[in-house]
Design brief:
The protein has three helices and six strands, in the order βαββββαβα. It is α/β, with parallel strands linked by helices and about 160 residues long. The longest helix is centred in the middle third of the chain and has 19 residues. The protein is elongated, with a radius of gyration of 19 Å.
């Protein structure tokens, strides 16, 4: 299960931008065979005075994120997006896979956030899959028949203890 948990200043993204992000994020995982329903995307919004960087809240402009512009952001407040990405269904095992994943994250985020003068950052945490259940079921292992069944049905279903579907 990948979970993308965005923390944003209020009203930073339109409903259409949120939907576009959720679709693009889901595509990252379905392209490698994960069932779409594994992918969760959450947007939590708070007031600009709820986020602080270097002791300064984002209700005032922070220095520009544009390297060629050393003056302050011209917006009345700084838009912020913090993203925590949690992986359980799969883990990244090589530096190449990690780099490819980070590039796909950047490909999704940069068109939305880059150039808007926002401050944004993300991190990825991977957790052992033996501490994961969906609707009380232990998810089938990657590439197994049970995962194919779950992917096709679009929901976690009881696969039975005897291997029968």
């Amino acid at each position: 299960m990948p979970v993308w948990d965005f923390h944003l200043t209020a009203s930073s993204l339109s409903p259409a931008e949120k939907a576009s992000l959720a679709t693009a994020i889901t595509s990252i995982y379905t392209s490698i065979g994960l069932p779409a329903f594994y992918v969760q995307v959450r947007f939590t919004e708070s007031s600009p005075s709820s986020y602080f960087f270097g002791g300064l809240d984002t209700s005032s402009p922070l220095p520009s994120t544009n390297a060629s512009n050393t003056t302050n952001n011209t917006n009345s407040e700084t838009k912020y997006a913090g993203l925590q990405i949690w992986h359980i269904a799969r883990t990244m095992t090589t530096p190449e896979v990690k780099e490819k994943f980070l590039q796909s994250v950047d490909d999704v985020l940069n068109p939305i956030f880059k150039g808007k003068g926002w401050h944004w950052e993300y991190f990825v945490t991977e957790s052992p899959r033996d501490l994961w259940k969906i609707n009380g079921f232990v998810p089938p292992l990657p590439e197994e028949e049970g995962e194919r069944v779950w992917r096709e049905r679009g929901v976690a279903v009881d696969l039975g203890g005897d291997g029968e579907f």
